[in-house]
Design a protein that fits this description.
Length: 318
């Protein structure tokens, strides 16, 4: 029997797995990667009796891998908030899925473990750009301003670390980052005793300053789009930039396009005041995600003008 922990390398995936393993410690093979590496079940060949825990990656994007695992006799526990497609009705699959607005995988796991490691769930929510939800949760816990600021820093830095074409473009490989945070029951203690967050925070701030100097390709009251240069730093900051712009301008939709492997990776954010429409637009161009925040991988350069036109049309107020 083999155990696999399969998770998105961003803040949501890391914080979701951290809660599970604090609650039920278990040695497992870690399967993860950059934020856009989501077809993770294709990397393993499970056998009868194996147990797979999958967090914060789309079941739709892993449909064939899931079918193979179940056919081989493996058991699968899945936690996620992205569009799942057709969920198999199988006795060996425990699907913990929630597609509501204002939810992320770390919050789904928080519910599963009855809130026993909630600070990590709130860090995950901060990282997934759900600051309002995280702040409300922190208030119910009676956390002071310093602790709340640290939770936000942890979540945003873990999320920043996940963006890149390859793991070697990241500041830390996500599996290494998980091993570093693993011993800490409290994310505040992790931030203050391990230098990973300080390293990430410095790099994140520097990259964001550079990104904010770039003139938008599309600027309007309802929608803005930024095309970043072809560089590792721009790929690292793409998600953080999208979240920053969405937070600064809650009535405006945001698109951040980043050169990636001869094409473009696109981060889409619906207006925070009306968090809908991002997934529908992404699907038109072969992407996906959720209503408030979605992405597109491998967008050909020739399709950029059409995307910008569709983006403007989708989010320009009548």
């Amino acid at each position: 029997m083999a155990f696999y922990d399969i998770f998105n390398g961003d803040a949501d995936g890391l914080c979701a797995l951290q809660q599970l393993r604090l609650d039920a410690p278990r040695a497992a093979t870690l399967v993860t990667g950059t934020k856009r590496d989501i077809a993770l079940l294709d990397r393993i060949a499970p056998a009868a009796g194996d147990e797979l825990t999958v967090l914060d990656v789309s079941m739709r994007a892993n449909a064939s891998g899931l079918r193979r695992a179940l056919a081989a006799g493996a058991r699968v526990q899945w936690f996620d908030h992205h569009d799942a497609g057709d969920v198999p009705d199988h006795p060996a699959l425990a699907a913990n899925l929630d597609f509501a607005a204002g939810i992320c995988t770390a919050l789904i796991v928080d519910r599963h473990v009855s809130g026993r490691h909630r600070a990590w769930a709130l860090a995950g929510a901060f990282g997934d750009n759900l600051a309002g939800i995280a702040l409300a949760g922190a208030a119910t816990m009676g956390l002071d301003a310093h602790s709340i600021a640290r939770l936000r820093q942890v979540g945003e830095c873990l999320n920043y670390n996940a963006y890149g074409d390859r793991v070697d473009e990241l500041m830390f490989p996500p599996a290494e980052l998980y091993r570093r945070l693993g011993p800490f029951e409290d994310p505040v203690a992790f931030a203050e005793r391990d230098d990973a967050i300080a390293v990430l925070d410095r790099s994140r701030r520097d990259d964001l300053v550079r990104a904010l100097t770039i003139r938008p390709a599309l600027a309007g009251a309802s929608a803005t789009a930024v095309i970043l240069p072809d560089a590792p730093w721009s790929r690292r900051i793409s998600g953080t930039l999208a979240n920053h712009l969405a937070t600064e301008h809650p009535g405006r939709a945001t698109a951040v396009l980043t050169p990636s492997r001869g094409a473009y990776t696109v981060s889409l954010r619906a207006p925070r005041a009306h968090p809908a429409g991002a997934e529908q637009l992404a699907r038109e161009f072969g992407g996906g995600g959720r209503a408030a925040a979605s992405g597109i991988n491998g967008l050909p350069e020739s399709e950029v003008p059409r995307l910008l036109a569709a983006f403007r049309a989708a989010f320009t107020s009548a």
